[in-house]
Design brief:
The protein has 294 residues and is an alpha/beta fold. Helices cover 30% and strands 24% of the residues. It is elongated. It starts with a helix and ends in a 22-residue tail after the last helix. Keywords: Signal.
């Protein structure tokens, strides 16, 4: 009788729900494009409730966090992934998959406004940086994933310059203003709020030509900032991705695929709802620059 009563009491206890799996997502600056797009997806996909944002310095830190198993997802530039694979020959990159292909991020090259000196014979000499080729034997400050982009562009365009590693954006521009760097290179999706706040009297946008040597990694693009130039400035851009590791466990796999499916199905909302980042206008979810998570 006691045994029967115990079984009845046990049967009346409700089964506990499985503990939800939370996953960390490396984004970037709280005012950056990555953070904004992560929050945007969160507004249209309830699956993001179990994803926690982790602010970082950008793509380079993000891929390191992902490879070292400190986060489960990371927003990264595809050229940083390719550099890890092809230059660093990091075997761990083979376990990285693209959960979502995203927008192109433009390469912004900044320098102080150049001056021009005319000789007696009429030859004009540029003092400073007016075009990409002027970077030869100069110093370019960068931070985060932009450090990799700066090195790749120097090698592919055959314009040798020294890449100066800066802690962050403020440190990079401080180096420019103090003369410790001749230019600042930053990869960021336009329109970037902080670029719109720069003073055109102190800094210029320097054009970057699109050449066959960079095709396959970068695409041609144009920068449009009225505060820095009355005209569009040619540059190159690299596609970004939301990357993850190739998880096989059922609960993580289901969560990631549900999140992916929701984002793919809500592209129109991400592009048309008020308050969404303008970079969604360029996203098609059709071009995958890295193997897809399936």
């Amino acid at each position: 009788m006691k045994t029967l009563l115990a079984l009845l009491l046990l049967a009346s206890v409700p089964a506990q729900a499985a503990t939800p799996v939370f996953m960390n997502v490396a984004t970037g600056s709280p005012t950056g494009t990555y953070s904004a797009m992560f929050k945007n997806i969160g507004k249209v996909c309830t699956q993001s409730a179990y994803l926690k944002e982790r602010g970082t310095s950008g793509s380079l830190e993000n891929i390191d966090l992902l490879l070292s198993n400190e986060v489960s997802l990371a927003f990264v530039q595809s050229d940083v992934l390719k550099a890890k694979e092809q230059i660093d020959q990091d075997a761990r990159v083979k376990n990285i998959k693209a959960l979502l292909p995203l927008h192109n991020e433009e390469v912004h090259l900044f320098a102080k406004p150049p001056t021009f000196k005319k000789s007696i014979l009429g030859k004009v000499t540029t003092i400073g940086v007016a075009k990409f080729e002027d970077l030869k034997q100069k110093r370019v400050a960068a931070w985060g994933g932009s450090l990799i982009t700066a090195k790749v562009l120097s090698a592919k365009m055959k314009v040798p310059y020294t890449v100066v590693s800066a802690k962050d954006r403020d440190a990079a521009f401080a180096a420019l203003q103090s003369g410790q760097a001749d230019a600042v290179l930053a990869v960021v999706g336009q329109p970037a709020a902080w670029v719109k706040e720069l003073n055109g009297a102190n800094v210029n946008l320097v054009p970057i030509p699109f050449r066959p040597e960079v095709q396959g990694v970068y695409a041609p693009a144009k920068l449009m900032y009225a505060n820095l130039s009355a005209n569009t400035v040619p540059t190159v851009a690299v596609q970004s991705v939301l990357a993850t590791r190739d998880f096989k466990t059922a609960d993580r796999k289901k969560m990631l695929l549900d999140y992916q499916k929701c984002a793919l199905s809500k592209l129109v909302n991400l592009q048309e709802d008020e308050g969404m980042h303008p970079k969604w206008q360029e996203v098609s979810f059709e071009t995958w620059p890295w193997p897809q998570y399936k």
